[in-house]
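Kindly inspect this chain:
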Amino acid sequence: RFVSHLVSHTMTINLPSSCASAELPVQPPTTMNQAASTAWLIIQAAEINNQAAIAAQQFFQTATLTQLPTQTDTETQLPVQAAATNSHAAKVAQLPIQTDAETQLLVQAATAAQLPHQPAATNSLAATEAQSPVQLKKASSRSKDIITCEICNLRLKKKNARLHLKRKHQENADPVASYRHLRSQCVDAKRGVFAVEKSFNGPPEPVHVIKYTSSLGHRLECELDRCNANAQFANRIGIQRFECEHIQSLQFCACATESEGCLSESSLDVLVENFRFSQQRKEDLLKKQQEATKNDAPLSVLLTVGGTETTFHVSVFEPKTTFASGRVIVTHDSKTNSWHCPCIDGKFSCTHKATAKWHLFEKMPKMFETANIPKEDFPCDEAEDIGSITDDEAAERMIKYLISHKKIPAQLPETLVTSSRDAKALSGFPKHLIPSEAACTECGQHALGEPQLISATAKVLTLSGLVTGISTYRKTCLNCDMVYRYQDWQDGVHNFDDHLLLSIHLCLLLRNALQTHTSVRRIIEIIELTERESFPNKDRILQAYLSFEGLTDHDYLYVCDSCGYHPAVVVMGVHNEGGFSLPVSEIPNPPQNYNGEVNAHSFWEAVTMEVISHGLYPPGRRNPFVVEPTYHNWSPWIGPQTRHSDILLNTESEKVCMPDLSGGVDQYLTKEQLADEVLNLKLSEIKKLCKKCGIDGRGSKMDLVLRLQDEMDSRAIYNQVFKKVRGASGGWAVITCPCGVVYSLKFNLRAERPSDFADLLLSWKIFPNITVYDNASGLVSHINERCPQDTPFAIHEGTLLDHTAENIRQAAEHNLKVNLPWLKRRKQPEDVGGHPVTGSVEHYCLSDNFHQSNNKQNSDILRRIEIVPELAETLSSQCAEQLFADMRKNNYFLNRLTLSAHMFLQRNILHNYNVRKNTRAKEYM
């Protein structure tokens, strides 16, 4: 059967192109019968693959071979092998054979096929080649010694093929041994912290590894995420003590040497004297060294592993870092004079970089002598800004001077904007920016000192790229030490930190981009791609733009030109999605004597000062002007002509003890309202929310929402759902006129309540006649309870008519109409104490049709806007919702900002939004 099978099938056997020793077999004699010819071909194939020899030999002996020529060549003598090892021969023997005499038969070599039972991998090149399934094909080059790798298509010499396969394409690496391991060095012997080379190949970079063994326990940990992931996987499958190649290499680490001791303060003084460090930096470094000494850990260790002749690595003590080793590695390239620390961008400074500089300066002072670093440029490149103000009191004086004397006009001359736009092409920017002040304005017109160079490599950012080589200067009063820096907008530039400057034209472009919901980062990326230039850190550019807006003389009137300072009709709402990350549990409680009042002018002045102060304090340094969120110092914004005084109301501290939702208090966010907002989430997000709340996550979207709603009686579940839907803070609330212009703005620390809008309305100079709010009855109940003696909603509790059954029935049948003619024409005669626009003292709190489901009382049907013909014709109660839909497009960048930056920029965006609304309204008149 075997012979018949071979005869009835065809086979084409090819030689591998990369096998140089294989030769084409000789054609069988034509006088040979068919069976003998077939057996003869199998023998030739077996000459190349010994594994097929036994099967071919047995078949050859059974066939009729009387006409086959005698073979005396040793190549035809097949070695006898055990049948148990010939598992692959059966596969070869079963291949079909073609008996066409006109076709030249080629024998396929199976040496590249991997055997079922292979020996363990060794370091020999022969074993590597035998185990590798990669074939190297002959290149089409004229040279016979050049071949091409089929994996990476690399052209290389044939003699280097084995070494190439071993180095580049061998997956099974040799185990760590005495002759093959990663170099390591002990950094902290007490805690078992070592520095180990990152890999066998590639650039020599060290990583921190912990191997600590004591009677209390063991700790094995590597800094690389890849090794940690492998260790976690090994732990899950039962391997308790997994060791990566870095930890394994520690067994060949040399013994720990004694610590070099503390760094001397004298060398640090030299760095301060040479303007390498500021005085504040010196104090920070000394405190850091004291902390390291207290923890019995070396402050800095120069690593001998992973470095080169021009690259140095220093392990720096940092117990508060996110790295498990409690240390970070700072890298210095003396060739390019660059410093790198994983905690901050390469262009800015940090305590770790300063510690490494201190260490290298003390141990290798010649490195700093030969480095070609101008004194005024060293701070700029490394952000050790000698132009920064080290005294907080001096910084406060300087910021207040800039705000009072260096304000930028809100409406800039068109010629200035044009010249700023074309300044790069025309080389219009001055190369030396010197303060224009000649005498001190603080201490009686004393003459200022000579200009001091801050940086000779400052950059001006423009729409068409960077302008480099700008020199910035400052002046100091010799009498009171008041510092004056360049801040003259007349030259078409805005100075941020004496190293980074923005053209006025670019600042206006960024302002308009924010009005079209385009972030500063995206605009800078567009310029970089267009001009093919690399700009400074984009977060730093955003801070520079915010400082420009902080110095711009905006009035922030928040007023509509049509409705005036005191609109008779207002619409209120809250933007729940516009929030900032804020751990409300960490907000301190207000003082016991806090009466719910806050100075709006002082609060927003502090926010503006923080925005400007970023140009005086380099990144990484403590900024004393940061505004911390507190209940007693958190103010809304109301236009100066609309509010009754600078003292506004803020009673958010009362939210700390919220009543139970099951008590039926309708002024809080109900379960139904929260469930409606959950429906807006994606199904995957709802499933994650259910899993976090311990609720079954199987089923449709509606099933999951209903399960969450049923469990919201629990305060813990309610808080989880609320946090997911509305974020960490409570969003921001607004009061608008029917035209859509914003009059009041309040950033909520906690979830929205009617008390937030009560604070705003009671802070107004004149209470509006008509208030539209989605929870009207809750607002009226809160104000009546808060102001029992002088409540504005004394008539029918803010409804249009008395709460009789007949009025409610007619309103339900849409047959009820209540005319308020003073909304169209001023009431004559006026009521005593009436509104200046309408002349009426009546006050109503209404709700629109969109939020009718929030009204639970039967009498709330008397609050419908459609009952009043004067309002139903002209009032768009959705103007607040339209504003939120427009501002929702800014959430992707606003919600990622810091607290003060978010508040300042949102107020600025809404101010420009109001200005644009008023401008368009005037154009249509």
